[in-house]
Amino acid sequence: MTYQKWLAEYDRAYADPLSVGEQECPHCAARRLNLVFVQDTRYLEKGRPIFWCGNCLKGIFFGRVEYPENAKVITEEAERTERPIPNFRVIPPD
Ligand SMILES: [Zn+2]
Predict the structure, then answer these.
(1) How many Å apart are CA 59 and CA 4, to the nearest integer?
(2) pLDDT in tens, 27-37
(3) Residues 6+ apart with CB under 8 A from 78
(4) 2 alpha carbon to ligand 1 midpoint, in Å?
(5) Which domain of life is it from (predicted)?
(6) 39: CA distance to ligand 1 center in Å?
(7) Which distant-in-sequence residues (6+ apart) come within 8 Å of 82 by Cβ?
(8) What is the pTM of this model?
(9) How far is the CA of 59 from the centre of ligand 1 (A)?
(10) Could you give phi then psi for residue 78, rounded to 5 degrees?
């Protein structure tokens, strides 16, 4: 059930990335959700979505997808060097 809630919030964030900060975390209800796409090094028009809560540090991620409009995209190098994505606990599928 928990995973389904995360999926639903992810779908909402994917549809409108700019409003992700207004969504409530499925776990702790904080409005601290983040959605970042890590750009694929070969297929630059695609990236790995990382979706997490900055308050309780839980979240989910997926394989390569196309970016939605207004997506926040970072390079793999930026992911490594700037570490914008904290270590979070991955919610497994139910
Ligand atoms: Zn949370």
Answers:
(1) 12
(2) 999 999 999 99
(3) 84
(4) 12
(5) Bacteria
(6) 25
(7) 74
(8) 0.95
(9) 8
(10) -65, -35
